[in-house]
Amino acid sequence: MITVIVLSERLDAVLPAAALPALRTAKAVYAGEGVPLEFWSPLGVDGPAPAVVEDGAVVITTSADAYPDAEVITTPEPMGAALLDAAAVMHRLRSPGGCPWDAEQDHLSLRQYLVEETFELLEAIEDGDRAAMREELGDVLLQVLFHARVAAEDPEDPFDVDAVASELVAKLVGRHPHVFEGHDPAVHDATSQQHRWEELKQVEKQRESSVDGVALGQPAVALAAKLVQRTKRAGLPVDLLPEGDDTGTTLFAVTALSKLAGDDPETELRQICRRFAANVREAEAKARAEGVDSLAAEDWRRFWPSSTTRL
Length: 311
Known about the structure:
- This protein has 311 residues and is mainly alpha-helical.
- Strands 3-2-4-1-5 form a five-stranded parallel sheet, with no helix packed on it.
- It is extended.
- The termini are far apart.
């Protein structure tokens, strides 16, 4: 039997460790498809693969299609290897000769898609739809790649996707000393790690306020919950939270109570909204089935799902 060693197209002239025993005992080592001449010497190649390869020989190639009966040893791809393909495709789309629409976009024009794709991912997560999650995660990743590619063209302050990834790595390592430095006495469970993360972030970013860095443009319920979370960690007394009878203050109070109780008010409210929307659709479908197109108040009550609580 012959042995075929399939090289990764991403990892030039890198042999998998599993190939070493076969190479040591091989009668001959040949270069097959996709192995350039300059790699022959580093890989110990004797020559190009003949039309008929004798038993006991090894063929180093980038594709095993021509050897259906051979023992195949593949080169494991590093984790995240497909991200290189994604970045390359984005680069091609944005470059001259690529997609005209992609070429016209900038950070401002792409904002709406980042928001839309994020909410579509959130919906897939809430639905527990694994296939949709995989697709929507890809769409969110596209937004990161797209913005990074646009940023690389900035004439005054360019940066690319590698700079984005490097900064992320530095942040993750710096904020997890208990993992990457072996020990952090301040971290002993998930809760203490969350507090430690905020402490390290505040020092790192030299923030003067406990609410510095809170995105004020996020949805109001999520914003209120984040402010309550930050100020609670800073030791703000509950009696200093907003008080009043107006709608905004009442909503803030309900959000604060939910967050202080350990719940996520944004998620809780979204679940109620989704359930309400499903009830509306079900009532409308029942009405249509009975030939009712325009629903009066009594019709809504008649067709409303009986297992739900009326608001």
